[in-house]
Amino acid sequence: MREMNKKNEIFDHTQRFSQEKEAREDSEKRQSREFSEKIEKSEKQGEIAENQRKDDLKYDFWLASLTNINSSKRIQVRELCGSAQAVYVLREETLKNMHLFTDNELQHLLESRKKDLNRAWERFLGQNIQMFPIGSKKYPQRLKDIAQPPYAIFCKGSMPDARKSVGIVGARMCSEYGRSIATKLGKMLAGKDVQVISGMALGIDSASHAGALQGKGSTFAVLGCGCDICYPKNARNLYENIQTSGGGILSEYPPGTEPLPYRFPERNRIISALSDSLVVVEAKKRSGSLITADAALEQGKDVYAVPGRFGDVLSDGCNALIGQGAGIIYDLDIFLQNLGYLPEKNVETTKIKNISLDKSEKLVYGCLGFHSRYINYIIEETGLDLITVLHSLDKLKRYGLVQETFQNYFCKRI
Fold this sequence. Notes:
Elements: H1 2-64, H2 71-81, H3 84-89, H4 92-97, H5 103-112, H6 117-125, E1 130-133, H7 141-144, E2 152-157, E3 165-170, H8 176-191, E4 195-198, H9 204-214, E5 219-222, H10 236-244, E6 248-251, H11 263-273, E7 277-281, H12 288-298, E8 302-305, H13 313-323, E9 327-328, H14 332-339, H15 347-352, H16 359-367, E10 373-374, H17 375-382, H18 386-398, E11 402-406, E12 409-412
Parallel strand pairs: 3-4, 3-7, 4-5, 5-6, 7-8, 8-9
Antiparallel strand pairs: 1-2, 2-6, 10-12, 11-12
Helix pairs in contact: 8-9, 11-12, 16-17, 16-18
């Protein structure tokens, strides 16, 4: 009897254990199923959100492409409707009743909706170009703060970050002196981890980009055409090197937009907006560089100019800016000091430390700066006669310390 009870007890215990095990397994399966369902639901939600984000970008791309309508109006209609997609599906009558667009602008918008947006969007996605519409996390804060921010920025390469940045602009048909100043300044700024912003035009712009690349820094070109177009065409190496050296090619215009003349003044406000300070190196009295300077002043930026000779057409613009209160750059080291970036080394000492100069050569070299001086000025400052000054200048030129910028005008070589 005792043995029977013991067997029953063992059986009951085994059965209870088996039931508990089954219950645990069922619970684990249920929890696992619920967890899988949650993951699946989350993935679906994430997929839906990602698809929605892509859709939003597609319609932002459409609105960014309507360059016949100024950016302020496009931003305003997007804000009124809540999204670019909402603008896209809005009825013609509702758009008219907004009283926001001219008849031509409204017609342009309506005609654009008849085109194959999906095809245009897929083509854009294959171009390795980024687009940052206003309101996106990577849209530069510096641009949000200006009177007429671009609707979006298209970018090949990288975008400028929060580091200090200086814009450098100037004449396309510049002098060798102006080119050397822009190159040296770009290089010195890059050496101090300052981003260099310009427009990649011939002359001063290209020289400043090239200098920044020599200084192993980041430089950014703002174009007056689509960022997929290298303009000017002969700047292909510079165009590529900017992108591969941590910089970028930027534009408010969609890919394929041609470089028409009126677009360059429009882009100048972006150059100044992305810059903490703006430097003008050689400019005529009526030039795009002065438009950029005006935009910088309106945006509350500091503007500096490199002075030039009275009567020199390439200096008229800079001299006029100085007359209006722009900062004067008469020494690049001092300019960097004023910005808070001390030069790493004394440039002049480095140049002459291995060169033995006689007394006359030292006097002549000492009275020169980076701004050209006429030979009569050198004679008066040094007290030397013409022949001695000419001999000294000839030696200093051979040493690579001095250059003749114009006939009988000399300056220190940068």
